[in-house]
Design goal:
Length: 473
């Protein structure tokens, strides 16, 4: 891999690779050229010999971690010799007891013996910088760890196995072939003939643009399937918004994630309807039974609706339609919205039914939004909600339909750039411009695709991507 990045350190790093909580087993990972010699300073075998340096690669040894004469823990040590390891360097993994105190003691001993504490994601960064994996596979590692649903897991697995890398590499191969051909022909016109070449090039480019377009088409759905649908719940006080939230959360006391170091404004909640993930925005106001619209005003409510992918508009079907209802309704125009006619258990009191709702709101027989009826108090109607969301976002079928889904915004933007550059080549051909006009756009497309897989990327981007990883990975 052609990375010439400054960020590479070749010192030996260590980190606790398992979760920072008490568990049966904990793993402390060491990587670098001195991994074996550093670990040998703090290890004795089960037969009380200091023989770690003779450890056969790709095997596991039983023994003890020691601090001088004091035994710190009974461990199993595995050794993977460079380049056949996760990082392509010598890697030692110490399987200790999984208590925080004991793992931290072992970590301290390693640090005292010559290791440096790894940065988040540094093991995977080394795997990338050493050329074992490309950037899409490195990103897939993080996505597998963070996967919150089956789709996220499966698409990340496919990405780790190279599906995006292979597509991108094959496109780049075709582009570089054409660039090389043009260059050779311009340098050596006697042996390379460019007559009729532009038509041939166009025939090659159009399928490539189509290929990228079809990848791009998968992106919006791919990202929503993987990361969830940004959802806002809206409606008048007492319509049943909190009840919807509770029904979705599955308990009276829904889980509220307070993102560390931030204010209450960014409290976000994630709920799941089977495999559909909803990222609920601005639920704090709803929880305190202050109404979103009353509290923040119509303008802010509009902003929230604009920010969301989905608007759940809860209406109390036993109350009369007021102007504010019509205002909210207007705010939702142009947005994927589901109207939830709530309190349908109170049959005799119903004033807004599915049939008359369009007339009440738009003065006609139809409205653009799907309408469902619920009794959120009794948690009834959630299946209809799920079906309505499936229709709106997944063409009525939750099963993945594409072979490859783009699930990463970075990939999406770069694919758009690449498609744009290839399109410019086609336009140059259509305008009968000379061949040297083609090369610059071909080269831009080649670079954009290269950035996806991590060729032609700068230190900053690499740092940014890996800093989001967890410790020990
Ligand atoms: P919010 O102000 O929009 O968050 O509304 P709440 O969820 O707090 O509900 C307001 C009141 O309506 C509460 O007393 C709920 O128990 C009641 N409520 C909510 N949903 C239903 C329902 O489906 N049927 C009935 N009968 N009452 C409901």
């Amino acid at each position: 891999m052609g990375n010439i990045l400054n960020s590479f350190n070749d010192d030996t790093i260590c980190a606790i690779a398992t979760a920072m909580s008490d568990a049966g087993i904990g793993i402390i990972r060491v990587s670098g050229k001195d991994a074996l010699s550093i670990c040998s300073k703090i290890y004795i075998s089960g037969k009380r010999e200091k023989d770690l340096l003779s450890h056969t690669p790709n095997s596991i040894k039983y023994g003890f971690i020691c601090d001088g004469d004091r035994i710190v823990d009974e461990v199993m040590i595995s050794y993977m010799k460079a380049p056949h390891s996760y990082t392509c360097e010598d890697v030692i993994e110490i399987n200790s007891h999984g208590g925080m105190l004991v793992m931290n003691e072992i970590l301290s001993l390693l640090l005292q013996s010559g290791c440096r504490l790894a940065e988040p994601g540094e093991f995977t960064k080394r795997a990338f910088l050493n050329g074992r994996i490309d950037l899409t596979k490195a990103e897939a590692v993080m996505d597998i760890i963070e996967a919150q649903n089956r789709f996220a897991l499966e698409s990340s697995r496919a990405q780790l196995s190279g599906n995006i890398y292979n597509e991108v590499t094959s496109l780049r191969k075709d582009i570089i072939y054409q660039m090389a051909y043009i260059e050779s022909a311009l340098d050596d016109p006697e042996n390379y003939d460019l007559t009729g070449y532009s038509d041939q090039l166009k025939d090659k480019l159009l399928p490539m643009i189509n290929k990228i377009s079809s990848l791009l088409k998968s992106a919006d759905e791919g990202m929503i399937r993987k990361d969830g649908i940004k959802t806002v719940i809206i409606g008048k006080p007492n319509a049943g918004k909190s009840s919807l939230l509770n029904a979705l959360s599955g308990s009276e006391r829904a889980i509220v994630t307070d993102i560390a170091g931030t204010t209450r404004d960014v409290i976000e909640e994630t709920v799941r309807l089977d495999d559909i993930v909803l990222n609920l925005i601005d639920t704090a106001g709803i929880r305190e039974t202050e109404d979103l619209i009353e509290k923040i005003g119509v303008d802010r409510a509009k902003e929230k609706i604009e920010e969301a992918d989905l608007c759940l508009y809860v209406l109390d079907s036993t109350s009369d339609v007021e102007d504010i209802d019509k205002d909210i309704f207007k705010l939702c125009e142009g947005k994927k919205t589901i109207v939830i006619l709530n309190k349908n258990d109170l049959t005799p009191e119903i004033k807004i039914s599915k049939d008359i709702l369009p007339m009440l709101f738009s003065g006609s027989d139809t409205i653009d939004f799907p309408v469902i009826t619920t009794s959120l108090l009794n948690r009834e109607g959630l299946d209809d909600l799920k079906a309505a969301i499936t229709d709106l976002f997944f063409n009525g079928d939750l099963a993945p339909k594409q072979e490859i889904y783009i699930t990463n915004l970075r990939h999406k933007k770069l694919l758009e750039e690449a498609a744009g550059s290839l399109q410019l080549v086609v336009e140059s051909i259509d305008k009968d411009l000379s061949e040297d006009f083609y090369t610059i756009d071909l080269s831009n497309a080649y670079s954009s695709l290269g950035e996806i897989i991590g060729e032609e990327v700068g230190d900053d981007l690499v740092e940014e991507i890996f800093s989001k990883f967890c410790m020990g990975k």
